[in-house]
Amino acid sequence: MRLWRLAAGLGAHFPLTTQGSLTLIISAGALRLFGYASMDLVVFALCLCALIVVIVSLFTTVIAGYFVQRSVLGNLAAQASSQRGNYEAGYRNETGFSLPALAWLPLVRLRWTITQPNNTKTFLETARDKRLHEFLLPGSRGAGETIRRRFEVSDALGLCRYCWHGEQVANYRILPSLGKIRPVTLQRAKISDDGLPDATGAPEGDRMEIRPYAPGDSLRDILWKGFARNRQLNVRLPEKSVAFDDKTYAYLLSGTGDEPAAALARIALENYLLGKDWCFGADGSPATNSLDAALDAIAKSADWEQPQRELLSETTSAQVFDFENFIRQQNISHCVVFAGAVDENTLDTLAQVLQSHPVKLSLLLGIDFEEPSEAIPFWRQLLHHTPKQRISGSSLSLDRLTTLRQRVESMLIIDRQSGQRIEANRLGGETFG
What we know:
Blueprint: H1 2-13, H2 18-36, H3 41-78, E1 81-88, E2 93-100, E3 108-116, E4 120-126, E5 131-138, E6 142-155, E7 161-175, E8 190-212, H4 224-230, E9 234-244, E10 247-252, H5 259-270, E11 277-282, E12 285-288, H6 291-300, H7 306-315, H8 323-330, E13 334-340, H9 344-356, E14 360-367, E15 369-370, H10 378-382, E16 389-391, H11 398-407, E17 410-415, E18 421-422, E19 431-432
Parallel strand pairs: 1-7, 10-11, 10-13, 13-14, 14-17
Antiparallel strand pairs: 2-5, 3-6, 4-5, 6-7, 8-9, 11-12, 15-16, 16-19, 17-18
Helix pairs in contact: 2-3, 5-6, 9-11
């Protein structure tokens, strides 16, 4: 493994590409076997021309790449910006970074790709000012303070290349793609108070219940006027009632396949679905009631891993880094939780919190339908027989979702690709239109 990594590292600095290496080996071999041994003048001339082209391209690319590298590093330092770049996953975003297109260098071209943030595609477009302008297409959410790029100067034939890496100080935030998700109505938290009649509430409502007197009832609750008429002791008690809590608590749980859940949290925050008074938390970030800070927490939660969660939960108690600390420190009785539906660790975390804390949860689970991996026959493509979408059922546990649904106050599963609500009893590998 170490030898393979060493070879890969050396290969990245090797100036010849695979095409250039094959051209050099084949031309040198043909020149030795046929050009000199058989005195074939045609092969001799062709191989000699090929070798000259490879050598000239090699020196031109390396020399031009060295000077271009110095110029690019200067541009990276000059274009460093203190303003944060706000991008959205799934869409092409202009970063504002540009470099000269090297039109003055014949047969030499400059290209680069973004390596940090990860899972990002790079597009370069030549504008009228003869500069290459950069566009990025993030695949998932994220946040960071530096952008790392891999630059490459190569010849027009693709025989040689000169590569290096450069970092630019640039604070960025990538928000999850909303897909076709539409705003949904969130269930509000209920507290025991004089409001709506509810069997789960405390007896704090209007005095509506009348029953016969029993030992232990207060004398103040006795209907003395009725006792004067019929000589029977009855008491009037307050009914069980609840009221809607004015403050909403919400939390985003990170895990495998949590990108749709992050999109649900984003649309809930940006459309003010949590109400006027709310508190939001996410893995890796403290609780906040600021919209900008909450969006930052959504972006940063993509880099939150299980080892970090265990380490910080043991060493840090002043800040909130996971869901259990969020519930404990905020003293929450009801919480809206955004989570992925395909991660069993996330479902286990919810079950543990429900077991150890008397809290009511309203779950909003996000999911993405995936196309089947099997190849589609050509004759089916001609007949326009498009297969239905499927859930990635290998990591989806129907039993755990069913058990969890019985223990929470409400559970809603939404597909980000279609924006439709999915019933939990239809999950488990079935097909959907």
